[in-house]
Design brief:
With 259 residues, the chain is mainly α. The chain contains 9 helices and 2 strands, in the order ααααββααααα.
Length: 259
């Protein structure tokens, strides 16, 4: 086999390992409802577009021509990098779902969970609603364009076969989880305040009018107030969702900007 063709083929394989692993693990492609063939097709399509523009590094050239074990290690590195970036984005974008779960627990909607078609797991209705809204906003602001651009740019910051775990990886992971939780609280906070005020009012009414049964009256009242407040608050929560997207963009840009 021609040496130049072999090097080109192996380089394209390494590009596909990174892109394909990312497509398998990053939301929303990682959802259970997305067929495997769609993820593979997307990975192949992006690889075909990117591979001709990516320079072959001396490390890859040496591995292809003289060291098959080094080539296997390079493949593993690319897969690990793609999976790491995809799982990191999954953690960031879980903020919307966490916010929905917080509100759902407070209202009591978790008593009637349904199966989420994206994850195949039982989640609350509000968690699904917040998740869908976040993804609609993400695509509305062309966030997917940035993600694809960041993956393409990662080959400049982290050349093929050169990925190594940095000492700051643990700190970056902690920052990632902390920001996701903070964002979830920020998104859910307005509705949680309304529900807290509703709880106080219901308790005061129950004390003032003992004939009112707290369980029979309180739960329907909380649901009505919560749904009314949700219809007002959720359309105005776009800045909180956008802050999650901005953090995802900045984190991803920093992660692929260098080794």
């Amino acid at each position: 086999m021609d040496t130049a063709f072999l090097v080109t083929l192996m380089s394209a394989l390494l590009v596909f390992c990174r892109v394909g692993a990312f497509a398998m693990s990053a939301p929303p492609l990682s959802a259970a409802g997305v067929p495997l063939r769609v993820r593979i097709a997307l990975g192949v399509g992006i690889t075909v577009a990117l591979a001709p523009t990516i320079a072959v590094t001396p490390l890859v050239l040496q591995a292809v021509l003289h060291d098959s074990s080094a080539l296997a290690l390079a493949v593993i590195r690319e897969v690990v990098l793609g999976l790491s970036l995809g799982l990191a984005l999954t953690t960031i974008f879980s903020a919307a779902r966490m916010a929905g779960e917080m509100v759902g627990v407070e209202i009591g909607f978790t008593l009637s969970n349904v199966v989420d078609p994206q994850s195949g797991k039982s989640v609350g209705e509000l968690a699904q609603l917040y998740d869908v809204v976040s993804w609609l906003l993400f695509f509305a602001v062309n966030g997917h364009h940035f993600v694809i651009g960041a993956i393409a740019g990662s080959f400049r910051g982290i050349p093929l076969g050169s990925f190594t775990l940095r000492a700051q990886a643990a700190e970056s992971l902690v920052n990632l989880v902390r920001t996701a939780v903070e964002s979830a609280i920020l998104i859910a906070f307005p509705l949680l305040i309304v529900l807290f005020a509703c709880t106080v009012v219901v308790i005061l009414l129950a004390r003032a009018v003992p004939q009112l049964h707290l369980m029979d009256f309180g739960y329907p009242a909380r649901v009505v107030v919560a749904l009314g407040a949700l219809s007002v608050i959720l359309p105005r929560s776009a800045p909180a969702f956008l802050s999650v997207f901005r953090f995802a963009e900045s984190w991803l840009a920093g992660a692929v900007g260098g080794r």
